[in-house]
Every structure is written in structure tokens, then in C-alpha cells.
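Do me a favour: review this protein, sequence plus C-alpha cells, and tell me how the chain folds. Record follows.
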Amino acid sequence: LLDGNLNYLFDNNTEKIAFPDSLIQVSGDSLLSFTLELFENEAPLRLLDWQSPKPGLVQLLFNDVPQKAILDYNPEAFDPILEYDGDTLNFWYGLGSETSRYLYFEADSLNRDTLEIKPGNMEELPPLMLLQPKASGSELRQNPGEDLVLRFNHPISSIDTAAWQLLRDSTREAMRFSFELDTLGFRNITLRFAWQEDMFYVLELMPGACRDIFGSASDTIRLNIRSSEFKEYGNVILRLADMLPQKNYRFELLEKSGRLVRTFSVSGKESHEQRFRTLPSGQYNLNIYEDANQNGRWDTGNYLKRRQPERILLRQLEQLRKNWDLEVAVAVEEELNN
């Protein structure tokens, strides 16, 4: 125990602690050596702050990932959309009520925080608009191996497919494509299309192509798109071995800055090959952890529940170059145990 307040007690979740998984047997002439890994104990989820930056949205800031948050509300007053963003929970709700509504966060079985949400004014609500990529006259460079993701400022409730068109080069030939609305927040629309490299496209959304949960319709959106050449990108080939079929592993490819690029899980296998295609050149890291509870994220330990932190490893990869295949071999169990 790193006893921060020097009282010989583990009474603060900021104090790091470690404990063995099993009993240690000793005898009078034993000389033992073993390693314990310190960790910060899992802290109770707490609501740190909340705000309502605009009508129809409440942002709740927590001390940890908010997926574990227990919210209580009157379903007749709210039909919310929950959007998770790091340690923030975006609580989207429809307008129209003329009285205050109440949202509760269950801190524990005895305590809860009460949030009073006052009636919203539709006149203060900004119109539905595209946030990313920026709609402007300049060309958007498109990775030919990736889908185009459109992010809006409000959750989308409906899409008018007849108001979308994708045109190729100066001939304005209409292309067939598909799109999908992300149900984790309902703010991202993914346009799926097999881009031809080094080609010019125009994506046009007519007025009313999208409508948000507040009834607001999008205005005209025009994106000039230039697809890049495949040789401008590199590929990463992961060859994974030494895995236990009964365990669930999570793999995350990160940029040097820490931004998540790709992620996938593997279970029920001793080996696996995964290819990441058309990646920009640069430095990447591979984050590997045993996702024991299969919740899609890394979890620290809990001393009182006798639960160790999930094993984790961050491995720096070689520099990825343009027009290059970077092959990476990983002995998963061996590296997690080192």
C-alpha cells in the first residue's frame, strides 16, 4: 500500500494498492521473491458537474466513464437519447414541456443527485447543421479505403434518401451508395461507397435531407471531395498468437497522440490475423488488454471485491511508411504476462 495519509489503512481510492491472487505458503527457511503490481482502486462513480448548454441537451460530467451511470427519470416526461463522450454523458431530450422536469443520478442506494431541467425555448435552439467535415468550397481529401462520416450538431430522427446524391467528376454521373445512422448518439451518418482513387466527387444534400429530434430540417449541404491514391497510405498486418480461447482480448490501434484509430476483439481463438488498410503514414501504438468482463473497455481493480486490474500492454510499433505493409507479430499471453 502506498499509504498517502500514513494511517496504516487503505481508506482512500487515490492510494495505490496491490495484492496477490493466491495464498503464499512460507516455511522457516524460505526465501521468497515475487512481484505485485500497484494500481489505483476502482472509485465509486460520482457526478462532478452538469450543465445545459442549449435547450434539449444536458451534459453530465463524471469522474469515470459514464456507461455505469444509473439515471432515473419519468419516461412520460423524457424519451432521451444517451450519447457517451469520454467522461461526459450527453442527455438529449425532446422539447415541448411547459414545466420543469427532473433527472436523477443514483449515486448509491441511499443518495442521489437531483437535476432540475427547466422548460426549453425552441427559439434559442440552433438549426440542424453539419459539424464535420466542414461544408465549404475547398476540397475534402477522402481516404479511398474508408467510409465518409458526417457528424451533425443534433441527433437525427429521419433521413430523406431522395434528397441525397453523390456525383462523380465533371460529368456529374450519379453514383449508387448506401448510408447508415449511428445509433450510439444518432449524430453520425456513415456514407458507404467504393471510392475510385484520385477522383473528384460532389456530395449534395438538398434541404430537408435530414431532420433532427426537435423537428428542424437541414439546409443545403455541398461537399467537394477528392479521393486520394492508395499509394499515399500504408497497411498494418497484425499476426496474433499465444492466445487462450477461453479469454476475451481487446486490441486498439492508436495514433501517437493517443487518438483511437481502429479497434477489435478476439475470443475463442489461439491465433488471429487482422489487417488495417489505408492508414496515413506515421507512428502508431498497439494497446492490448484482457477484457475479462467483455464491456469493451479496460477496467482497473477493486481491492474489496478481490478483483485485479485487467492485464494491459501498450506496444509501440515501427514507423508506418507510405505504400508499405508493416507486419507485426504479437505473442499475446507472453507479452501480457511480462
